[in-house]
Amino acid sequence: MVDESVIVVREFDRNKDLFGVEDVERRCEVGPSGKLSLFTDLLGDPICRVRHSPAFLMLVAEMGETKEIVGMIRGCIKTVTCGKKLSRNAKYNNCNEPTKPLPVYTKVAYILGLRVSPTHRRMGIGLKLVQRMEEWFRESGAEYSYMATENDNHASIKLFTNKCGYAKFRTPSILVNPVFAHRLSVSHRVTIIRVAPYDAELLYRHRFSTTEFFPRDIDSVLYNKLSLGTFVAVPRGSYTEESWHGSEKFLSHPPESWAVLSVWNCKDVFRLEVRGASRIKRTLAKTTRVVDRAFPFLRLPSIPEVFRPFGLHFLYGLGGEGPRAVKMVKALCSHAHNLAKDGGCGVVATEVSSREPLKLGIPHWKMLSCDEDLWCIKRLGEDYSDGAVGDWTKSPPGLSIFVDPREC
C-alpha cells in the first residue's frame, strides 16, 4: 500500500486530464488472460461511455507533486427493474385471468472503466477509486452498485469481492460475430419490419418491463442518436411494412412466433483493436478476407481486420415468443450483420443471460465470445423501492436479462 496522502482522487477535468487519461488507457490492455488482448480507444472522449446515462461521473487518481494521472474510474446511476409483483388491487381481471405482474424498480449504480497504470498497481489506488465512487453513489440515492468483469480477471474479482464487499451475481454471455465481406441472407420465410421508437417503447414496456435490469427510461435509450433502430421479425404473410399499424394492435393480435431487437452504434463512441497476434495469424486472417471479397457468392466466413481499430454494433432488447422465435432471432441477427457491414463495422456483439432460451438463435464465434461475463453486486443501503423484493443481491436469476447499451 502506498501512502494515501500522495494520492488525490478527484473529478475528471477534460481540459487538463485528457492526455494523462489517454496514456493510462493505452497502457491498460484488457481481455481474457491467455488470449489476444483487446485495446479500447474512446475516440478522444474518455467519459463518452457513461454520458448517455441519466447521471454519471468520472474520477481520476493523481499521484505525487507532478500530479501524474495513475488511474481512473467511471460510474453511472439509473433506475431499473429488480423484480416483479402482482397488483395490490386484484389478482385477477374481469375475465378471471391472472393480472400481468408489475415491475419493481430500484436505483442502481454501475461501475465501469476502472483502470490503474500498470506501473502503479498493488498500491491501493483501485480501492480508493472504488470507495470514492461509492460515496457519490450513496449521496445520489443509489441502493445497489454492480460491475462486470471477465470471470478469469482474478485481480478485479479479488478487489471487488474481497475488499469492497461485492458478491458474484449473474454470469451473462457475451456473443460476438464477425462482419464478413459478403452479406448474409435473411430467410425468405421471415419479414423484418423496422418500427418507430414510440412503437418500440410500447413493445418493450409491455413485454419486457419485468425483466431484470430493464431501464425505466427505455425511451431515452430508444430515442438516442446512437440507437440505429428497432426491428421486429414475423412470419412472412402475417405482417408487412404497410400492414403494420403500431405495437398496440400488434400485441393484441400477435403472430404465432415473432422476435425483436434493437441496434446500438458503438462505432461512434469507441473503437477496438486486437493486439498480440503473430504475423502468421494476421496473414491467414487477411487471406480469408481476400477470398471472401473475390468470391462473395461462396459466402465463406472471413476474419475482419481486427488488428487495426474497428467499430462494432451492439444488439440489445432481444426477445420474442412462439415456437419459431429462435429462427426469427437468427433472421434479425443476419439483418443486423448487414447493417453493420454497411456501417463499416468489424463485429456485431450482444450480451444475454446464460439461460436465455433465444440464445440458440444468435450466431457467434466462440474464439471472439465470452461464455461467462461476471457481474458482481453490492447493496449500498436499504431498498426503498415500492413493493421491494427484499435483498436483490440474494435473488435467484431469471431466464432473461436486459443489457443497457449505454454501458457497453
Derived from helix and strand composition plus strand pairing, the structural class reads alpha+beta
CATH architecture of the largest domain: 3-Layer(aba) Sandwich
CATH topology group of the largest domain: Aminopeptidase
- Largest sheet, if any? 7 strands, mixed
Instruction: Provide the succession of SSEs.
Output: EHEEEEHEHEEEHHEHEEHEHEE
The helix content, as a percent range, equals 10-25%
Kindly give the count of domains. Answer: 2
Kindly summarize this structure in a few lines.
The chain has 408 residues and is of the alpha+beta class.
Task: Tell me about this structure.
The protein has 408 residues and is α+β, with helices and mostly antiparallel strands. It has two domains: 4-171 and 374-388, Gcn5-related N-acetyltransferase (GNAT) (Aminopeptidase); 175-361, Aminopeptidase. Helix content is 24%, strand content 29%. The protein has helices at residues 14-27, 125-139, 154-163, 197-208, 218-222, 247-252, 279-294, 325-342; strands at 7-11, 37-41, 55-63, 68-85, 102-116, 144-150, 167-170, 173-178, 190-195, 227-235, 258-265, 271-275, 312-321, 347-352, 373-379. The strands form three sheets. A seven-stranded mixed β-sheet has the order 1-3-4-5-6-15-7, sandwiched between helices. Strands 8-14-13-11-10-9 form a six-stranded mixed β-sheet, with helices on both faces. It is globular and about 70 Å long. The model is unreliable at 31-36 (pLDDT under 50).
